[in-house]
Amino acid sequence: MSGAFEIRGGKRLSGEITPQGAKNEALQILCAVLLTEEEVRITNIPDIKDVNKLIEILQDFNVKVTKNGKGDYTFKADEVNFDYIKSKEFKKDGAKLRGSVMILGPMLARFGEAYLPTPGGDKIGRRRLDTHFQGFVELGAEFSYDEEEAFYSLTAKELNGKFILLEEASVTGTANIVMAAVLAKGKTRIYNAACEPYLQQLCKMLNRMGANITGIGSNLLSIEGVDKLHGTEHTMLPDMVEIGSWIGLAAMTKSEITIKNVNWNQLGVIPNTFRKLGIELEQRGDDIYIPSQENYKVQKFIDGSILTVSDAPWPGFTPDLLSIILVVATQAKGSVLIHQKMFESRLFFVDKLIDMGAQIILCDPHRATVIGMNQETPLRGTTMVSPDIRAGNALLIAALSAEGKSVIQNIEQIDRGYENIDERLRAIGADIRRIDS
C-alpha cells in the first residue's frame, strides 16, 4: 500500500534536526563487504528502503548480517552463496534497486564472475551503465548482455591492472571499478575518476582493509592490487542531500533551525550555493545554524547578469540538490536560472510548483528560470504525486511553506531515500501526517 503525506503548511519551525547517514555512500560501502571473508562493521547506516533492500540482497547471498543497534551492523561474507546471483529471485530483487549494480565489482574481483539484471531506481532520464562495463573489460573481463532476459554477465580468469580513462566521472562507475581493481594483479590507474566524499570514504575504508589506493580525493586514482582484504570498521558520513534540504526548508518557512553534526569540511560548495540565494547560515562547531529570515535576496554575478545554478561533478554542486534550490528560488527576491546538466527529466516536477503559484518558465528539459516572489505571495497547498526521491523531498518542502493543505502521493519514493522524515519534521514543529492514499 502506497501512502500519502497530508501537510498543513505555512507554519514556522524551530529546533534541531540531525541528518541521517548518507544513502549514496551506504550503497557503495555495503557492496564492499563482499570483498573479504572477515567481519566488517558499519555504523550510521540510514534506515531507508533502498539501503534495507540491499542488506536483504546481501543476506540472500548468505552474507551473515548482525544488527548491533540502530544503524549499526556487522557483515561477514565468508560463505557466499554464489548460485543466488544466477537465480530468478536475484533477477527480480536486483532489478528493483539501482544500487545493486555495485555488487558487480566485488563479485568479479573475488569470484571471477558476476551477473546483474537491468537495474531499476529513479525515472530521471537515461542512466547508462557503459562506464562500469568498459572499466571491467579494460581490466580483462569478458562482457555479454542477454537482451531477452535483460541480464548482464561478466567473467574473468584474472583481472590485470590497466590505465583506464573514464569517459564520464561516474560515482558508481568509479566505485565499481575501484572495488574490482583492489584485488587485480598489478597497478590500475583511473583518470577522470569521480572524487565525491562518498567515494573518498569507500577508498579509505578499502585501504583500512588492506588495499593500496593513492590519489584519494583527486580525479586520478592509483590502485596497487593486493591478494586479499581483511575486516574493518567504518562510520558513514551524514547525508549532504538532507543537509541541503534542511537549509532550504529553514529559508522557505522562515524558521530558525540548527542542523547537527554535518561534517562541515565535506560539504564542498553546498553552503555557499545557498548563500548565493541570500540565505544566511553560519558554522557553529560542526553544526549549521540558520536564523529565521523574513526574506532572502538572490546575489547577481559581478557583471549584473542573472544567477545561474548548475550541477557538476564533485567538487561542483551535486545534481541531487538542484530540485531543492529550484523550490527555494520560488520565494527568493530576484531571479535564478537552474541548469540541470546531468539528467534530462529531473525538472519535470516544476508543473506541480506552477500549480502551487510559483513563477517558473521551463525553458527545455534541462533548464528552468525561476522568478522569485520574495515571500510576498506564498505558494498554495495542492494535491500532487512524488515522481522521484529528490523531487519528492523538494515538493515536501514546498508544501511545508505553502498556505493551506497539501497531499503528496506516492511517498514510497520519498521513503526510499529519507528515514522517518515525517517524525523528524514533526519534532521541529511541522504539521505532517501519513494517510492512506
From TrEMBL:
Primary residence = cytoplasm
- Name it: UDP-N-acetylglucosamine 1-carboxyvinyltransferase
Q: Where does UDP-N-acetyl-alpha-D-glucosamine bind?
A: 98, 320, 342
Subcellular location as annotated? Cytoplasm
**UniProt catalytic activity:** phosphoenolpyruvate + UDP-N-acetyl-alpha-D-glucosamine = UDP-N-acetyl-3-O-(1-carboxyvinyl)-alpha-D-glucosamine + phosphate
What keywords are annotated for this sequence in UniProt?
Cell cycle, Cell division, Cell shape, Cell wall biogenesis/degradation, Cytoplasm, Peptidoglycan synthesis, Transferase
Which residues of this protein are catalytic? 122
A Gene Ontology MF term for this entry?
Answer: UDP-N-acetylglucosamine 1-carboxyvinyltransferase activity
Q: Where does phosphoenolpyruvate bind?
A: 23-24
Matching InterPro entries, A to Z? Answer: Enolpyruvate_Tfrase_dom (IPR001986), Enolpyruvate_Tfrase_sf (IPR036968), MurA_subfamily (IPR050068), RNA3'P_cycl/enolpyr_Trfase_a/b (IPR013792), UDP_GlcNAc_COvinyl_MurA (IPR005750)
Q: Gene encoding this chain?
A: murA
Domain Enolpyruvate transferase as annotated: residue spans? 8-425
What domain of life?
Bacteria
NCBIfam families, sorted: murA (TIGR01072), PRK09369.1 (NF006873)
Pfam families, A to Z: EPSP_synthase (PF00275)
Native source species: Epilithonimonas hispanica
The record's listing under PANTHER family reads: UDP-N-ACETYLGLUCOSAMINE 1-CARBOXYVINYLTRANSFERASE
Instruction: Give the enzyme's main class according to its UniProt record, as a single word.
Output: transferase
| One GO term (biological process) | UDP-N-acetylgalactosamine biosynthetic process
Q: What family is this protein classified in?
A: Belongs to the EPSP synthase family. MurA subfamily.
Physiological role: Cell wall formation. Adds enolpyruvyl to UDP-N-acetylglucosamine.
- Give an example GO cellular component term for this record: cytoplasm
Named in its record, the pathway it takes part in is:
Cell wall biogenesis; peptidoglycan biosynthesis
Q: What is its EC number?
A: 2.5.1.7
